[in-house]
Design a protein that fits this description.
Elements: E1 2-9, H1 13-21, E2 26-30, H2 44-55, E3 60-65, H3 74-86, E4 91-94, H4 97-106, E5 112-114, H5 123-131, E6 136-138, H6 145-154, E7 158-165, H7 177-182, E8 199-203, E9 208-213, E10 220-222, H8 227-233, E11 237-240, H9 247-267, E12 272-274, E13 279-282, E14 296-297, E15 319-330, E16 334-341, E17 352-357, E18 360-365, E19 368-370, E20 373-377, E21 395-400, H10 402-410, E22 413-428, E23 431-440, E24 445-451, H11 460-470, E25 474-475, E26 478-486, H12 495-510, E27 536-537, H13 546-554, E28 559-560, E29 575-577, H14 581-584, E30 600-604, E31 607-614, E32 619-624
Length: 625
């Protein structure tokens, strides 16, 4: 039986708890430093709060310690690991090999997971990280199912794979564009997201092939319909991107994927189970179209190319709601839009909208939405006139649905642990004894024995019904269901006494740890040996400290280059990706596209970046021009 884990992002403790309540089996979040999202750090005390909530359901809390480290930061990182281990963190998500070494030497006993920043996309590299002691590898997102299967065959460590959210255009952990442009390293958690910027595409003669588009911006990942394929390929942890996303985004996406995993487990109960206990009841109906997205793609999952780019609206557009019919001034500061709505679309006051106008992304709130008309503040844009360049036929998207936000707030998810109760009635020395035993979904047990005197209820059926009613209710996290009553001569008991029995069972169960499937632990194993004998370790291995360098040398490396953050080597690749601008624009020579002779460049504010096309590997590169 394979345990399937839904892994959710948590910017803070509130979001982490909400994710678990909506069905996440695990959450990942950053401590106060060294997480690959600089603006998503959390105090150790807040992480302890999430750990306590997670333990109620056997859920897990992973902390991202996945930036590259400088020598001056190693001691701080070591102390942080020990502090986080002490509050109950389940595992660390790691990039820098210095962390592995410090963990072994400092008494860190919880598992280590190899971050997606390690850029693991081959069986050989996955095996290397397994042999170094990692219990889980987080694979590169730009892989196919077939490539995932090949990794699964090569290793015993668990496989984690992203299934939803924003996509970096570059192979993870190997993007140096932000560092090159602004001295802000993606490997240090401070990426400027240059891939979401707008560029001109020009040829060798300076002729503009395409003007002012976000040519490196990808749509968002959405594999909600492919979880069975991924599970069959060997993925056990399904990861949602979004440690900078808000609470409504996380609730919506987690709820959707949790429902999909539940459906898979119900379909194949002999093959799969959820990694944590509890079921989500009540709550809202999720809708991925109503939350932040740039349009959706399954990327390279089927080993085929598609149209992956989101060139027009790189900051998120949401769901398409219709097309603009007219835009005219309404008073001195307002304007009124008339929209031809798509079937079934209903607008609400306060909805947020986005569209392309005058070559720019325009975002605005609909102050008053009546039928197909939107009254809003006059929009500022390079376009002509008070209507901000909006033209009839412009597609309109809704990125904030007030009605949906209200639905999520008014119908919160409730997570409960199914618990069976059995009641036995017996007589001991003339006294009626009622024994209630409980067993939770995850296998915890509790027992309450009550001496009830010698008075037998006159109406036995009514008494049985009262026992069933009072012992088939909620107490704390537990949804009790009476499954059997044995014995004769039901005692006369009040509802309050039966409620007390149920609460006593709940108190006993709360006092014991949730018994869910244990996480794989290979932390103390190290079989890498001389796996890198004679190899040259280049700048893309991101070696920024002496401990990491020493680790590579001990595995047999002949030389170890410094990280790009330490030495800006000239002429090196700043980015390599499966995404190809030539293919996206119909210019791919390999696929019979229109020919554009000579090299191509991206130009932004006078800065030129040279595109390279490795057609043998079907990959694109970006270098300084």
């Amino acid at each position: 039986m394979t345990s399937l884990e839904l892994l959710a992002p948590a910017r803070n403790a509130e979001i982490g708890i909400a994710a678990i309540d909506c069905g996440a089996d695990a959450v990942y979040m950053a401590g106060p430093s060294f997480g690959a999202r600089q603006d998503a750090g959390n105090p150790v005390e807040d992480i302890a709060t999430v750990c306590a909530h997670a333990r109620r359901y056997g859920a897990r809390v992973y902390v991202t310690l996945n930036t590259i480290l400088y020598d001056s930061e190693l001691e701080e990182a070591r102390k942080l690991m020990l502090a986080l281990q002490a509050v109950g963190v389940t595992a660390f998500i790691v990039q820098d090999l210095a962390v592995v070494r410090m963990a072994r030497e400092s008494g860190v006993t919880i598992p280590l997971h190899a971050s997606t920043q390690c850029s693991i996309r081959t069986p050989e590299k996955a095996r290397l990280y397994q042999d170094m002691g990692f219990s889980r590898v987080v694979l590169e997102r730009q892989l196919s199912l077939e490539q995932i299967r090949s990794v699964r065959k090569a290793i015993e460590s668990e496989i984690e794979f992203f299934v939803h959210g924003a996509l970096c255009v570059c192979y993870s952990g190997e993007c140096y564009l932000s560092e090159h442009i602004a001295l802000r390293s993606a490997n240090r958690g401070s990426c400027i997201q240059a891939c979401r910027s707008r560029y001109d595409l020009v040829d060798k003669d300076g002729k503009v092939v395409m003007k002012d588009k976000a040519l490196l911006s990808l749509k968002d990942y959405n594999l909600s319909s492919r979880l069975e394929d991924l599970a069959d390929a060997g993925v056990c942890s399904f990861k949602i991107e979004g440690r900078l996303k808000n609470i409504s985004y996380v609730r919506n996406v987690v709820r959707k994927y949790s429902m999909e995993l539940d459906a898979l487990v119900s379909k194949r109960p002999g093959d799969y189970e959820r990694a944590s206990a509890g079921r989500v009841v009540k709550g809202f109906m999720p809708d991925l179209g109503k939350t932040f997205n740039r349009g959706y793609t399954e990327l390279f999952l089927d080993g085929k190319r598609g149209r992956w780019a989101s060139m027009d609206i790189p900051k998120g557009k949401g769901e398409e709601v219709g097309t603009i019919v007219s835009a005219r001034p309404s008073g001195r500061e307002n304007m009124e839009l008339s929209v031809k709505l798509l079937p079934g679309v209903v607008l609400s006051n306060g909805d947020g909208f986005a569209c392309m106008a005058g070559g720019e992304v325009i975002g605005f709130r609909g102050d008053v939405c009546t039928g197909n008309r939107i009254l809003c503040r006059s929009l500022q844009s390079p376009g002509p006139g008070a209507n901000a360049g909006l033209k009839p036929g412009t597609k309109l998207f809704r990125n904030i649905s007030v009605a949906f936000e209200k639905e999520m707030s008014s119908q919160p998810c409730l997570r409960e642990i199914p618990t069976e109760v059995m009641v036995a009635v017996s007589r001991e020395q003339g006294t009626i004894v009622l024994t209630a035993s409980a067993r939770t979904q995850d296998g915890r047990t509790a027992l309450v024995r009550v001496e009830c005197g010698d008075v037998v209820a006159d109406n036995q059926e009514r008494m049985r019904s009262l026992i069933e009613n009072q012992l088939s209710r909620h107490s704390g996290d537990f949804a009790f269901t009476l499954v059997s009553i044995s014995g004769q001569g039901m005692p006369l008991l009040a509802a309050a006494a039966l409620n007390g029995i149920r609460r006593s069972l709940a108190e006993q169960l709360e006092g014991s740890d949730c018994l869910c499937s244990p996480i794989m632990d290979r932390t103390l194993e190290n079989h890498a040996g001389r796996a890198l004998e004679g190899q040259e370790i280049g700048y893309r291995c991101n070696v920024a400290n002496a401990l990491s360098r020493q680790s590579y040398l001990e595995m047999g490396a002949s030389s170890v280059a410094a990280a790009y953050e330490l030495e800006h080597q000239e002429g090196v690749e700043l980015m390599r990706t499966k995404y190809c601008i030539r293919y996206e624009l119909g210019l791919c020579l390999k696929h019979g596209g229109n020919k554009v002779q000579g090299p191509l460049y991206l130009v932004n504010n006078g800065r030129r970046l040279a595109l390279g096309f490795d057609c043998k590997e079907c990959e694109m590169t970006v270098k300084e021009a």
